[in-house]
Amino acid sequence: MIQYEKFTFAELHAMSGSDLEQYAERGEAFRRDLSRGVIHNLSYPDKWLCDMEHGCEFGGGAPVNIRLTLKAQMSVTLCLVSSSDDVPFWQMSLPFNGGASVAWLYCAETFDPEHIVYTLQRIEGLVSAGITTPERLAFALRQSGGVV
After folding, report:
1. Helical axes 113-128 vs 28-42, angle rounded to 10°
2. Residue 129 CA, distance from chain mean position
């Protein structure tokens, strides 16, 4: 059985972008530990699929890079990235228009799972109401003040 470092919410919440970068620079296994810690502490709803970046397949611009895809509407994928040396904010976005545009759903200096899960639930509600494409979701969220 492979053991990995488990992070508490308090540890993740307290880590700066520089702290996250320094930890991730120790190697891919350490970077995966960070991602697993975020996923564990996120406790996202069962209606979502979660995939974490293992190398640089999502762009590799941050120590933690996670994709959350709504099972009921597979075209709805959110990108959650941690802060880093370059960008001191945790961010979650909804790509639309084939990835040419994004709606920024979350931006905070620290990891805040409650706010992230609230955003996931809000998107679930909009999809249940018939707003099913990323483009329409981005528009509805902008109209309602649901984007940063």
Report:
1. 70
2. 23
